[in-house]
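Protein: Bifunctional ligase/repressor BirA
Species: Jutongia huaianensis
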Amino acid sequence: MKKEILQMLRGAGEDYISGQVLCEKLGVSRQAIWKNITQLKEAGYQIESQPKKGYRLVESADKLVGADIESRLKADCLCRKVECLEQVDSTNTRAKQLAELGEPEGTLVVAEEQTAGKGRRGRGWASEPGIGIWMSLILRPRLKPQQAASVTLVAAMAVAKGIRECCELETGIKWPNDVVIHGKKVCGILTETSSEPDYIHYAVPGIGINANTKSFPEELADRATSIYLETGRKTDRNALIAAVMNAFTDYYRKYLETGDLSLLLEEYDQMLVNKDQEVLVLYGMAEEADPEKMQKGIARGITSSGALLVDTDEGMKEIV
Ligand code: BTN
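Structure follows.
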């Protein structure tokens, strides 16, 4: 019921909404409304109550609240349910456990803190409590496993769009799936899948967004940024999560329509910060790449399978 109450309070904007109207619309008693409003207040929402006028939402909580996220999802949003945790080892690990137990597509796991956040290539992902967005979505795409790699690119597009819409901040994508602002990383994505040779059981894109981080350790400061550092404002994390899920829904459906990125190519390329920029093509893992084989070139955009097209300085067209 908190989801509906929040929807109605937000819909009323600066105005009050009477207890009577809430009761009638939700078909519950005044006491039930009062109880839920009290719980919302306890969770950190500033809700003004005035006799004869009713209730007014003054400020949302600076806390992740499943009902708040759900109250902002579009009616056709792919995300149907939010599991909101205070602390977890990794939201990816939790989402995979749920998926193994048969949880349907569309369940989102979010946590205030991860104690063992996972990054790509076996690295960790710092996930301090209360300031970031650490979340993982359960997907069950009817695609071949090799097509699933593009889920990460789809998620990057959704994050870029969500930040743009919710925080009025221009973002770009550094191929394949880092979301960047002014060249610094604001979001990382790690997709984990469980599949058989020609069947995907589930895919779990895990998204980490530096939302309200106030500073980074020295060794990261020139590569990482946060929405707070870029805008000077605190982001409403529930609103941003919902904006990302709403955007993801549209992109993901287009991706499923063809099973590749062909309907998203143009938009992805517009977000691509590497487009028409010089890139260095490395063969093998970056740290161990053979310098003899490095090639300079200009990135031209992506293919429908998510690979980067590069015109090399030696006049070749490479698909990376
Ligand atoms: C990267 O290395 O760029 C990917 C980082 C992905 C971090 C997110 S935070 C939510 C989800 N849970 C994890 O353990 N990792 C991902």
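Remarks: The chain has a mean pLDDT of 93.
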